[in-house]
Design brief:
Layout: E1 2-3, H1 11-17, E2 20-21, H2 43-51, H3 65-78, E3 82-86, H4 89-98, E4 106-110, H5 115-127, E5 131-135, H6 140-146, E6 151-157, H7 169-179, E7 182-186, H8 191-194, E8 204-208, E9 222-226, H9 228-242, H10 248-280, E10 285-289, H11 299-305, E11 312-317, H12 320-330, E12 335-336, E13 346-348, H13 360-365, E14 372-376, H14 382-394
Parallel strand pairs: 4-5, 4-6, 6-7, 7-8, 12-13
Antiparallel strand pairs: 1-2, 3-9, 8-9, 10-11, 11-14, 13-14
Helix pairs in contact: 1-3, 3-10, 4-5, 12-14
């Protein structure tokens, strides 16, 4: 028995019940189907299922009951018609970009991207004859000027990793519509709770489910969401034959994460806002960027398209790399890690980790300075986090 989401349900209810598929045993928690394949009552039934004439699962590389539940619940959360879950966030990005492109096509992407995302656009795509242009994502005229006759895809993160720059998704989506292109949005920093790219006009949304959706540092995962027509035409066969599929166990873990996602993101966002306000007034801090503050460079866009700030804060320490290292090393509660969206507060020095492969010039263009740090707030008490930060700043 499959329980799809009810349109009348509120978001929190959908995150607990959406897409639930129960076996004949009537289990309370979602069942974990650790199976590679499925059996058929007859050869005729197998033929019919492979032809698509009979519903059912064929092979867990294509689809699996537990993975299907996760995909359906994410559709309920995002407001998407269909989805495909992947083994990681980067598998989702690579698949979403490459499945609809061919040699001779052109991609316009925001310059401020996660290092691996930028590698796909700048390094991998040209190997297959796909051209790309990087632009200032916050400059709408730059997007428009980069359009060519062969432009097929726009790609952006918003807010960006790690400097939390915000792009005008609605305006960029309209540019894409005007030339028959597709806009792919990596929405991981906003989470589907604080921003809805599909409602803003984007055509495809991707997530690293490793981050807030799991939220407890347990497993990898990713997901691609869009309308059913695009998935059937472009994604389905690519996904089926290249195999970036999610493990059923990871899908089950991510289902459990979705049940508590609103509670976690709300507290993390509240803590991030308090930390950002504290840091903004500190004499050892050169810059703080937080989407919930009035001094954010794109505060007007944030107000239009986001329902809240973020669980992350970007900060620059006076004194550059050494000051950033001294501060990070002095923290006791907040731990040094390249992950984010976790129940534990984490801090990252992008210039030497997640964005180290970019040239110094490229990092500067993206707003990543030697003293830049990315702070992901967790579920600890905000007072303890502020005390930890205050002690660490005293050590700089």
């Amino acid at each position: 028995m499959t329980q799809r989401f009810d349109d009348e349900w509120q978001l929190k209810t959908r995150l607990v019940h959406g897409g639930t598929l129960r076996s004949s045993f009537g289990e309370t928690s979602e069942a974990l189907y650790l199976t590679q394949g499925f059996v058929y009552e007859s050869s005729e039934a197998a033929e019919a299922r492979f032809k698509g004439e009979e519903p059912g699962f064929i092979y867990s590389r294509y689809a699996n009951p537990t993975i299907d539940m996760f995909e359906q619940r994410m559709c309920a959360l995002e407001g998407a018609e269909d989805a495909r879950a992947t083994a990681s966030g980067m598998a989702a990005v690579a698949t979403a970009l490459l499945c609809s492109l061919k040699a001779g096509d052109h991609v316009v992407a925001a310059r401020a991207l996660f290092g691996s995302c930028r590698w796909i656009v700048e390094t991998l795509m040209p190997r297959y004859g796909i051209e790309s242009t990087l632009v200032d994502g916050s400059n709408l005229e730059a997007w428009e000027s980069a359009i060519r006759s062969n432009t097929k895809l726009f790609f952006l993160e918003s807010p960006t990793n790690p400097t939390l720059q915000v792009c005008d998704i609605s305006a960029i989506a309209k540019l894409a519509d005007g030339i028959g292109a597709r806009l792919v949005v990596d929405n991981v920093f906003a989470t589907p709770l604080l921003q809805k790219p599909l409602e803003l006009g984007a055509h495809v949304v991707v997530y690293s489910a490793t981050k807030h959706i799991d939220g407890q540092g347990r497993c990898l995962g990713g997901i691609i969401l869009s309308d059913k027509a695009w998935i059937d035409e472009h994604l389905h066969d690519y996904f089926r034959h290249t195999g970036p599929s999610l493990s059923p166990f990871n899908a089950w873990t991510l289902l459990k994460g979705l049940e508590t996602l609103p509670l976690r993101v709300r507290q993390q966002t509240e803590s991030a806002a308090r930390v950002a306000d504290y840091l903004a007034d500190h004499p050892k801090i050169a810059r703080v960027i937080y989407p919930g503050r009035a001094d954010h460079p794109q505060a007007d866009i944030v107000a239009r398209q986001m329902k809240g700030g973020s669980t992350l804060v970007c900060l620059d320490l006076k004194g550059g790399k050494q000051a950033a290292f001294d501060f990070s090393n002095a923290l006791k509660i907040i731990r040094i890690s390249n992950n984010l969206g976790d129940a534990k507060s984490l801090i990252t020095h992008p210039g030497t980790t997640t964005h180290k492969n970019l040239s110094e010039e490229a990092r500067a263009e993206a707003g990543i300075n030697p003293g830049t740090l990315r702070l992901s707030l967790g579920l600890e008490d905000a007072a303890d986090l502020l005390a930890d930060i205050e002690r660490a700043l005293a050590a700089v």
